[in-house]
Amino acid sequence: MDREEILEGVIEVVEKTLKASDVDEDTFMQDDLHIESLDFYSLLANLEKQFKIRIPERYLAEVETVGDIADLVSDIRSKKG
Amino acid sequence: MGKKQQNKEKEQKTKISKKQFFLTVLVLLMVVVAYLAVAFRAWDVAGATIKRRIAEKQIDKYMEQVGFNGTVVAARDGEIIFAKGYGRVDLTKGEDASRCSMDTLYPIFSLSKQFTAYAILQLEQEGKLSRTDKVSKYFENCKYGDDTTLEELLNLTAGIPEYMDDVEDYESYHSVDRDALLSKILNYTPAGKGQFKYSNSNYFLLGLIIEKVSGMTYEDYIQENVVIPAGMEKVSFDPQAADTKGFRPYDVYNPDNTEYHASYAFSAGELCTTAINLSRWQNFLYSDKAIDISQCFGDNPNETVYNLGLVRAGYYYGHTGGGRFHRHSMWYNTASHVQVIVLSNNAYCDSNTVSLAVEHYLSKY
Q1: Which of A37, A48, A56 is the closest to B350 by Cβ?
Q2: How many domains does chain A have?
Q3: What DSSP assignment string belongs to B101-161?
Q4: Which of A38, A45, A51 is closest, CB to CB, to B353?
Q5: Domain range spanning residue A20?
Q6: Which residues of chain B make contact with A40, given a CB cutoff of 8 A?
Q7: Count of domains forming chain B
Q8: Which end of chain B is more exposed for a tag (fewer CB within 10 A), N or C?
Q9: How do the pLDDT tens digits run along chain A, 81 residues long?
Q10: Cα A64 to the chain's mean position, in Å?
Q11: Residue A58 with chain B: CB contacts under 8 Å
């Protein structure tokens, strides 16, 4: 799975979890999507399910954009080998 | 007997009967008032009981909706007003596991920071250290030791990077070499000094300072000088030996669903206890006459401040805590004197939202 495919998957999960549309790589989680505490844990659960990885929450808490999430997922998947 | 005498006797009898009448009325009035008082009290108690039952049902319904798994305790003015366990202690065993209850021992992770901070204040009060001490007083080879005070460690403004980022994920549930970890922490280059940055490294160092100053292990010091005086009864220091177990389906490095090792969490998060005992701790912390923690949060109540392992935000004091699959929160509302403790072994639980919901439902009675 390359970065583009991961980004597509992340956008799908973000749109579904946060009930948002027109999300792209540069969409900001806070400023554009106003992610709240409750959404954060749903997003965490759905991302883990989609990519079958464990995402340490402190890394997810630090991301700013949807593209950052794709990078994080990509990084964890590459470590998983 | 003359007529005059007869009139006098008649007058006296009338006076007596009037007196008797007023006395009888008075007694009757008192009886009625007493009866009404008892009736109103009974009405009041019955009303409160009904309202409480409604609140409990609303909480149960909410917990079912969000799939809450864990234990919740709420208290008002130090008195428990709600205490209940939901779901199972071991999520890997499903229905075969026992139920979460008031006795369930949870690893509380970052809620432990309050205990570490309290110990530092206690040692300061005994004249054994000062919050203005430089870190270099306790660690000779610390890169930032001369520029950093214990106060900055307590309020997370020292800018010290997070040591947990330097430990591989798969290592965190095995015993970690403390000296090697300390050496890493002491050699970090701080970034953003003066600004709040959440980093467990600060509280890891504070735990070691407690050991150096007291001559005791961190665990023995906390047990003897903090846990016992606070009236807590069930406390341990091994997250892997707690009652609860969570479940993270895609945790490939951790197929046994083991929590963080005590050596990895140490004074930033190794305590384990029950929700009821945390309520006792809060009662002690916010009413302690010897150490007034409110003085450490500044004069502006509108400013969100971190200090002593606690966040003060508006009327609230509290903190959250979490491990690989535990999510906790404990908050104390200084305006309503209501405290809510939420301990969960569900990795995807939003304990803060659960806490606010419980407080909301309980506020109605």
Answers
A1: A37
A2: 1
A3: -TT--EE-GGGGHHHHHHHHHHHHHTTS--TT-BGGGT-TT-TTGGG-BHHHHHTT-S-PP
A4: A38
A5: 3-80
A6: 350
A7: 1
A8: N
A9: 899 999 999 999 999 999 999 999 999 998 898 887 778 888 999 999 999 998 988 889 889 999 999 999 999 888 765
A10: 10
A11: 162, 164
